[in-house]
Amino acid sequence: MRYSPDLRKRVLDFIADGGSKAEASRRFSVSRRCIYNWLEATDPFTYEKPGPRKPYRIDLEALTEHVKAFPDSTQKERAAHFSVSQRCICYGLKKIGYTRKKRHSLTRNNAL
């Protein structure tokens, strides 16, 4: 939730006049973390939108080539290689038709 610049100014003036951050938090009904963020900001009266995120989509052709070149890599290692989340790798592997290994040990064939 964004607070008005007027409220921010009143809170920061209260602290500049010698009031404590905890008292300002109670008096103006603002969290202490929010007050600390305003005090640390270069310009506490403006709102900065979050910056651009990294692309969350992965190139499926590059992932296919990587799987062929390194078949034993884990999803975590692949995620580090492509600089994406592990979940993104999981979705990408599903799209190209690879499934995760279901059994950790070999099964015996009952037919003799």
Describe the 3D structure:
By secondary structure, this protein is mainly alpha-helical. It is 52% helix and 0% strand. The protein has six helices and no strands. The protein has helices at residues 5-16, 21-28, 32-40, 60-69, 75-82, 86-96. Helix 1 runs antiparallel to helix 2 (21-28) and helix 5 (75-82) crosses helix 6 (86-96). The radius of gyration is 26 Å and the shape is elongated. The N and C termini lie far apart (69 Å). The model has no long low-confidence stretch (mean pLDDT 84).
Q: From the alpha carbons, calculate the radius of gyration and give it in angstroms.
A: 26 Å
User: How many beta-strand segments?
Assistant: 0
Describe the main β-sheet briefly: none
Mean pLDDT: 84
Quick overview of this protein structure:
The chain is mainly alpha-helical and 112 residues long. The chain contains six helices and no strands. It is elongated.
Summarize the topology:
Layout: H1 5-16, H2 21-28, H3 32-40, H4 60-69, H5 75-82, H6 86-96
Helix pairs in contact: 1-2, 5-6
Index terms:
112 residues; mainly alpha; 6 helices; 52% helix; elongated
